[in-house]
Each structure stands twice: as structure tokens, then as C-alpha cells.
Design brief:
It contains six helices and two strands; from the N terminus they run H-H-E-E-H-H-H-H. It has 223 residues and is mainly alpha-helical. It has a two-stranded antiparallel ribbon. Strand 1 and strand 2 form a beta hairpin. Helix 3 packs antiparallel against helix 4, helix 3 crosses helix 6 and helix 4 runs antiparallel to helix 5. The longest helix is centred in the last third of the chain and has 32 residues.
Length: 223
């Protein structure tokens, strides 16, 4: 989901600042809701974990440049299920920024596009979760079908935003169309793999009952 340098440049890049601000607004709203529910220190603690995890995901897990962007195993739905939308969004914001500042300064001009691409599908997934997972179902008990819907929403949103930035920046020429299509096809592997990883993590979480009352994980995980 790292947009390649030069795909969107010049005055067009201003739009990414506006979309990033909208994404930050959703994150701020989710953070305020979480502080009211679980407290400020809970948000801080979870956000530290998610930031470290996101940075590790970007640097350690396999990733490959394909077409207009990079294919990453981001595990956005896993972060959402374990830590909740607020901490997951902050982790994505800060993990991506940390990677850019420390290791990939060439990506900083694309930060607005990349953070939009990560965050807005996360909050779309949050809506899908409310609609598809019954209120009396703990996240550790969700089915593969439910996990697949979350992953499809998140990863599909990432592909859609990458395609938007590519077409916005480079138009609908044959070469750009092929590049976007190649990226989208490559992401199918992530869509199929991530639900299995989600369920594996959730199955492992069932053995961590001593953390049921911990404020460092999403209460809905066990309740």
C-alpha cells in the first residue's frame, strides 16, 4: 500500500492532505470514545503496542513492490480485533510515520496518501464488524466467514484507494491500468491469508484468559 514516488505529484498531492485530515478526524473520534470508556492510559498503552507491531509488520513481514504500490501483510483486521479501532488507527499512523522518518524518507511526501489508504478502510471495517458480528459474540468466537468479511473490507479498501491515487495521478492509460490490475491481483493472496492469521491469533487468545480484564486489549475480544 506504499504508493510509489511520482505516482501523484505537483499540486495534485494537496488532495492527500485533505483525505489524511479526514482520516485523522475518524481516529480522534474513536480515541475520544475509547478514553471515555477505558481511560486515557489504556489508549496510550494499546497505542504503544500497535505502533511497535505496525513498524515490525512493515519491516519484518514479506513485502514486494508490485505495479503502482507495495503488497504488505499489514494485519489491520488483527489489530482491530485485539486492540480496537482507536489504538489500531494510532498504531498505523505512528508506525507508518516512524518507518518513513527512520528508514524510508523517500516515502514521506506520500505519507498523506499512505495513511489515508490505511485508515479509511479500517473504519469501514469497523462498520462492517458492527453489522456482521452479533453483539453477544466475543471476537475470539468469530467464524472464518466473519473474519473473511473483515479482511475483504479492509484489503479491498486498500486496493480501492491505491487504484484511486494511481488513476488520479497518472490517468487511465493502458500502462497505468495494467499496473493497477497487477497490484490488485497480487493483493488477492493477502485477502485469502489474513483471515486465517486472524483466526490463529484469536485461537491463541483463548488461552490467555488471565488477560480478560486487562485494559491493554479490546474488551470485546473476550466479552
Amino acid at each position: 500500500m506504499h504508493i510509489e514516488p511520482g505516482v501523484v505529484d505537483g499540486a495534485k498531492i494537496v488532495l492527500s492532505y485533505a483525505t489524511a485530515l479526514a482520516a485523522f478526524g475518524f481516529s480522534a473520534k474513536a480515541s475520544i470514545d475509547m478514553i471515555k470508556k477505558d481511560g486515557f492510559m489504556s489508549l496510550v498503552g494499546r497505542s504503544v503496542f500497535t505502533t511497535l507491531l505496525v513498524f515490525a509488520f512493515f519491516e519484518i513481514l514479506p513485502h514486494q513492490t508490485v505495479g503502482v504500490s507495495e503488497v504488505h501483510l499489514i494485519l489491520g483486521s488483527t489489530l482491530f480485533l485485539i486492540f480496537g479501532p482507536a489504538a489500531a488507527s494510532i498504531g498505523l499512523i505512528l508506525g507508518l510515520l516512524t518507518q518513513g522518518v527512520l528508514l524510508a524518507q523517500f516515502d514521506l511526501p506520500q505519507y498523506g496518501m499512505n495513511v489515508t489508504t490505511l485508515l479509511l478502510p479500517l473504519f469501514a471495517m469497523s462498520v462492517v464488524a458492527r453489522r456482521t458480528i452479533a453483539a453477544n459474540t466475543a471476537y475470539v468466537d468469530i467464524s472464518y466467514q466473519q473474519a473473511f468479511k473483515l479482511s475483504l473490507t479492509y484489503q479491498g479498501g486498500i486496493v480501492a484507494w491505491v487504484a484511486f491515487w494511481a488513476f488520479y495521478g497518472q490517468g487511465f492509460g493502458a500502462e497505468n491500468l495494467a499496473s493497477v490490475a497487477t497490484f490488485g491481483m497480487a493483493y488477492l493472496s493477502v485477502v485469502l491469508l489474513e483471515p486465517l492469521l486472524d483466526l490463529a491469533v484469536l485461537a491463541s487468545a483463548k488461552n490467555l484468559q488471565r488477560f480478560k480484564k486487562s485494559t491493554l486489549i479490546e474488551a470485546r475480544l473476550f466479552h
